Amino acid sequence: MKRTPIYGIMAEFDSATYLVEAAHRTHEAGYSKIDAYSPFPVEGLAEAMGFHKNAVPLVVLIGGLLGGLSAYALQYWISVVSYPVNVGGKPYHSWPAFIIVTFEMTILFGGIFAVFGMLALNGLPMPYHPVFNVPRFALATKDRFFLIVFSTDPKYSASETRRFLESLGPRSISEVPS
Amino acid sequence: MADSKQPVTLGGDAPVIEPGYTFGTVTDKISSIVLTRPTSNGWFLGFGVAFLLTMMMLFAIGYLFARGVGIWGITIPIGWGFAIVNFVWWIGIGHAGTLISAILLLLRQSWRNSINRFAEAMTLFAVSAAGIFPLIHVGRPWLAYWLFPYPNTMNYWPQFRSPLVWDVFAVSTYATISLLFWFIGLVPDLATLRDRSTNRAAQIIYGMLALGWRGSARHWHRYETAYLLLAGLATPLVLSVHTVVSFDFAVAIVPGWHTTIFPPYFVAGAIYSGFAMVLMLAIPIRKFYGLEDFITERHLQNSAKVMLATGLIVAYGYGIEAFMGWYSGNRYDGFTLWNRLHGPYAPCYYALLACNIFIPQLLWIRKLRTSPVALFLISGVILVGMWLERFIIVVVSLHRDFLTSSWGMYYPTRWDWMTYIGTIGMFLAAMFLFVRILPMISIFEMRTLLPEAEVKE
Questions:
Q1: Kind and range of the H or E element at B88?
Q2: How far apart are alpha carbons B64 and B69 in whole angstroms?
Q3: C-alpha span between B90 and B424 (Å, rounded)
Q4: Which residues does chain B have within 8 Å of residue A46's beta carbon, measured at their own beta carbons?
Q5: A62 with A166: CB under 8 angstroms?
Q6: Mutate to test the interface with B, among A51, A60, A65, A115 (most CBs of B within 10 A)
Q7: Does position B8 have pLDDT exceeding 70, yes or no?
């Protein structure tokens, strides 16, 4: 495939309402490789782009189970197999006493998986990204809202897409160099 | 829409944010404290004093490492002393930060958005201060890693039926999760600082810390899920941490320790002292940095109400302890109660009742709940009271147990005081640095509170 020097076309909007509307219409128009940027989480924005479910809950569940099961297994193995000590006649396998560490490790692994799983799924850390080449994009972390159609989209065409984005009533439009 | 000017009131009287702010002005106001505002002389003075106290703490700990725990006032039968009193006090203070950031998030209390960031920072620094004490109290701190289960040539493993081992896991999990929660909340704001700063070094440092955050809708979607799940995990965690700390006492058979009321009463006490510390930090910060529009009367009132409620739970705990001392018919429990009221440490117990039960009842008066000066003073009283509570639990219970022949007295030495006051200095020094180099209020969560953030159909 021929590599295009353009990464995508970006439209800038004034408010979250306009951005959600624009994302919805772009998705409806058949564009699939699109993304939207906002300075805070906007309700319904990801859904407007056709992104409904993410894998974070599954990752956290796996992390929590892993932490809990391995903590219990470790305590069982230590207290029953490797280093059995008779403490006040309590059974070696004193499961109620093991619950606390099991609980704490469930939380610890669930939390670590939540944070690092979310970052990994988001492809972060990524200090460089083509969208940062647009000077106005610095406002995406302040008070502006952006929508991009990537040049890898099958429906992408430099002039068509630009015209389509202009029809959404943006504040400005810029090409994103790759 | 940007033109709607309705004030953000979410029930109650005072607004969460004063009306008239936009995304831009909220961003500028919070980020300018870090990026453009010159560092004031007051900051240097405050940080300087806190830094000197930190140095005093390091000196006291250095001398401790050279001479051993004999320089402290601890002696048999009081082997725990200041180290454990301060540990429990600091860990408790940390609890309010997690309560504000996690539990109030799950309960959709959006007023938390302007105080959660620095409350989380407070948690982190309080847990760091707390963590020092058990480590230096073990006597041979260079072997403190023996607390963790790791394969070793001695073929030795920790004893998992001991609350002290549970404590290691609870506190280290708490410290880790608090750090992750705080950092992940900072990422979008670090991106704001990256894009707003004009200084090259600041751009690089904030840029690296922001991990390349660009506010993509997919990223926000996963971010919000992860943040919510983390809050869901942190909520039972924070309740478990002080529960496990209370097990250190409740599982033992010492009169005054061996009671089932301890877990709930420790958790309530933790939140009580934590909110007192939040107010003692928030009141001067909002004044000096002119943040009265973001940390409003409503935040002060709500914190005061939480203190009132948890204070009454603590009072109930004291009441039950006293009642059980009589009702159980156990002569040792009965003696513990008598000893608190009439023993050599009785003044501490009366001071405790005054600080934790009687003086905080002033918070029923609305005028005092909305007066920053009064709240600051009452919070200080509560922090002293909660410290005394831990002193009474640790020292007064241990100093006279079952056999009169093993009774003793505990007198803290200057090294005890230097270490304790030094950790307060370390905590404050870290807070001073935090408000100077990081956004002390969550900018992106403040944006979501503005009327223009709402998506209209």
A1: helix B81-98
A2: 6
A3: 9
A4: 217-218, 220-221
A5: no
A6: A115
A7: no
Beta carbons of B148 and A101 less than 8 angstroms apart: no
Nearest to B118 by CA among B457, B442, B449, B444: B442
Question: Could you tell me the two tokens for B209?
Answer: 């810390």
Considering CB atoms only, which of B180, B444, B448 is closest to A115? B180
In single-letter form, the type of residue at position B380 comes to: G
Q: Which residue bears the tokens 């400005």?
A: A172
| Domain boundary assignment for chain A | 6-53+130-177, 56-121
Residues of chain A with Cβ-Cβ distance to B182 below 8 Å are: none
pLDDT in tens, A50-96: 888 889 999 999 999 999 999 999 999 999 999 998 888 889 999 99
**Percent of chain B whose pLDDT exceeds 90:** 54
> Min CA distance, B281 vs chain A (Å)?
27
Rounded CA separation B298/B305 (Å): 10
ipTM of this complex: 0.91
Residue B279 has pLDDT above 70, yes or no: yes
Chain B residue numbers touching A37 (CB-CB < 8 A) = 214-217
For residue A2, pLDDT beyond 90: no
The pTM of the full predicted model, rounded to 2 decimals, is 0.90
Residue B7, pLDDT above cutoff 70 = no
pLDDT at B2: 38
Q: Hey, what CATH topology would domain A6-53+130-177 get?
A: Alpha-Beta Plaits (3.30.70)
Q: Residue B231's closest CA among B106, B93, B108?
A: B106
Say if residue A4's pLDDT is above 80.
no
Q: Which among B160, B176, B194 has the least Cβ separation from residue A79?
A: B160
Question: Smallest Cα–Cα separation from A10: which of A175, A122, A159, A178?
Answer: A175
Return the HEC string of A43-108. CCHHHHCCCCCCCHHHHHHHHHHHHHHHHHHHHHHHHHHHCCCCCCCCCCCCHHHHHHHHHHHHHH
Residue of chain A whose Cα is closest to the Cα of B247: A100
Q: What gap in Å lies between CA B382 and CA B359, rounded to an integer?
A: 8
Element spanning A149, H or E: strand A145-150
